[in-house]
Amino acid sequence: MNGQAPGGHRRRPSGARHVIAYNWPLYLAGGAVTVGAALVARRSRGIVRAVAWTAGAAASWWTAASLVASHVVYDRSPLHGWEWLSPALVRAGRPPRPGRHLVISSGLDEASAVIGALHPGCEQTVADLYDALPVVESSLRRARRRVAPRPESVACSADALPAPDASVDTVIAPFALHELRAADDREAAFGEVARILRPGGALVLVEHCRDAANIAAYGPGAEHFMPRARWLRTARGAGLRLAHERRMGGLVTVFVLVGPER
Description:
Elements: H1 16-22, H2 24-43, H3 46-76, H4 85-91, E1 101-105, H5 112-118, E2 124-128, H6 138-146, E3 154-155, E4 168-174, H7 183-196, E5 197-208, H8 212-218, H9 228-237, E6 241-248, E7 252-258
Parallel strand pairs: 1-2, 1-4, 2-3, 4-5
Antiparallel strand pairs: 5-7, 6-7
Helix pairs in contact: 1-3, 2-3
């Protein structure tokens, strides 16, 4: 389906309203905590009242802040357009086109069709990890129902990406590899990326990192993200070095990691 609506028109990429649809139980819980805490605070005194107001304020902040953050990142930033890919590759010392490239998806692929349209003539493979994920979040299942995988996607696991050794110029992983919760699985995925990249090839990793800005915006939900240092440590373990880094919408980090020129 490639994320298309009836009539052949491509659906708009996921924005803040889709984030609500994918995560509605969390937003419902946040609203319930806010209202419940306010009711308890009005009927209580002392430490109980203080705790209730604090819990309600935190729930209210993170519910509203996460919606604003999602709107800024997914509706207002250039993230979904992918015009930023070529400048990022150039700043990393790579050609402006991704060449033969592999896009890694963990269930919600809204990048491959856009990248393919921007770079016609560049051979593309889409590796879909969804069916092999040890744990699939309910929000990801809801997203998968909205945006079905492209028919040409190749179902695979993190330790067996669908490409021969040293055959790919660029690997692009937008919001996919954090779904691999176990360190061993992430290390296996990075090892596979290193295996399939041609000498000097690049991994473009797009992720929220667990940092102060994302914690302020998403609260406990930021536990879902990996710290920047952990991504870079895993990359170094696979022989990939950081060649370029930029921030998107203030909350998303783009890493361009380059393999050795062997």
